Amino acid sequence: MTTSTVDTTQELAAFLRTRRERLDPEEFGLPSRRRSRRTPGLRREEVAELAAVSVDYIVRLEQARGLRPSADVVEALARALRLAPDERAYLFDLARQRPRNADKPATTAAPSLARLVADLSPLPAMLMNHRYDILVWNDEMARLLVDFGTLPPSQRNAMWLCLKHPEIREFYADRERVVREGIAHLRAAWAAHPDDQALTGLITEFTADEEFARLWAERDVKVNGRGRKVMRHPEAGLVELDYEVLTPLEDQDQRLVIYRAMSEESRLALGRLFALPRR
Entry's InterPro entries (predicted)? Predict the structure, then answer.
């Protein structure tokens, strides 16, 4: 798969088709028909009726024939397709109907944010940009995951580590869920930053990985603000963690990630890990 640029017209068409095809007509109270449909989900005619647009308009959108829907039409389509909030934002980004930050993506952390990450010790914390590049981290995060300072900058990326680092690849008890959630975030970032060639290059590189390519093709869109991860740490053993993702108001393309132990056993395991001498 080639992802040299974000072709928003083609992506908008594909996204609308996949969202339409996943819907169950019975949930909309539409009359049941014999299943002679070539594809699952709603027909174009049904989506057109629900969104109060013409069938021809839906056909032209799904065939990538150069339409740029208005904000009102995008909102109507989002309601008709019952999009989740992150999917709705993704649709608005593809239609170029959301204001976007014209600044270049950050590659370093502001000094105040770097100090904040350090001050969050003993909680493991790190700051990432929208590409999942890891900009700054505290000692606890380095002890928990990997000593980022020993890696070249091109490898200080959370998705790269999960896909390609020989130790981190086997780190997560529920690996596919972690990768799936990361890809859903990258897809949202890809639509919001169509001119970010570094992000496009990363995605192109990642699609050489069979697992990434398969999940990327599902077009899931989700930006997780919190969740849980279970790690098989080589020194601490099984560790269950909650994570929280915060967005600085003045750096809204950056993400502050903070881990906390879910249980007393995990808290004690982290304490023993952080007390070990550095290798």
Answer: Cro/C1-type_HTH, Lambda_DNA-bd_dom_sf, MLTR_LBD
